[in-house]
Write a structure and sequence with these properties.
- By secondary structure, the chain is α/β, with parallel strands linked by helices.
- Helices cover 30% and strands 27% of the residues.
- It starts with a strand and ends with a helix.
- Bound molecules: guanosine-5'-diphosphate (GDP).
- Guanosine-5'-diphosphate (GDP) is lined by residues 14-20, 123-124, 126-127, 153-155.
Length: 174
């Protein structure tokens, strides 16, 4: 049995649903949240990927450090994938995604020098008052090097596992 250890980051503005996402994703699994001295938390989830492979996901949440936008290199070190999240009802959280992606691309890269796979998540999609239309999200996603985007709802448990599976699949295919 081969075991992959994947450090995956989750970034985005405060209040978009990052820690709720992490809680939902790891819920029901054996996990612990580790309080880090550098001001980030990480949670662990095991995935039975195939008959021959297990995946241990370390999901790093920036835990209230969002105002810094520019995160410390410790946070990015060794990361192999990233979730950039915004709140679909809040256009300023969407506009900030460009900066999150740029900070990521300047500090996190794969050993071969390319940028790490990144998925864009439009959270709170259960709410009716979307401030950002889907075609704009799609265009932004393509223009900024995300491999895909998805509308999620942590509240309704929509696309949480699907988003993480899609990211893990992308990481393992590289
Ligand atoms: P963080 O600051 O990005 O970690 O955001 P939190 O996880 O603390 O969530 C901020 C607020 O948004 C909380 O009140 C959550 O209950 C709420 N929230 C998170 N996800 C959703 C969602 O998918 N739909 C709705 N309606 N509310 C959500």
């Amino acid at each position: 049995m081969k075991e992959h250890l994947l450090k995956i980051l989750i970034v985005g503005d405060g209040n978009v649903g990052k820690s709720s996402f992490v809680q939902r994703y790891v819920n029901g699994q054996f996990n612990r949240t580790y309080k880090m001295t550098v001001g980030v938390d990480f949670s662990v989830k095991m995935l039975h990927w195939s008959d021959k492979e297990k995946v241990r996901v370390h999901l790093w949440d920036i835990a209230g450090q969002e105002r810094f936008i520019s995160m410390t290199r410790v946070y990015y070190k060794g990361a192999v994938g990233c979730v950039v999240m915004f709140d679909v009802t809040n256009s300023s959280s969407f506009l900030k995604c460009r900066q999150w992606k740029q900070d990521l691309d300047s500090k996190a890269m794969l050993p071969n020098g390319s940028s790490i796979p990144c998925i864009l998540l439009a959270n709170k999609s259960d709410l009716s008052q979307w401030a950002v239309p889907a075609d704009r999200i799609e265009a932004f996603c393509k223009a900024n090097g995300f491999f895909t985007w998805m509308a999620t709802s942590v509240k309704d448990n929509k696309n949480i596992d699907e988003a993480m599976r899609s990211l893990v699949k992308e990481i393992l295919s590289i």
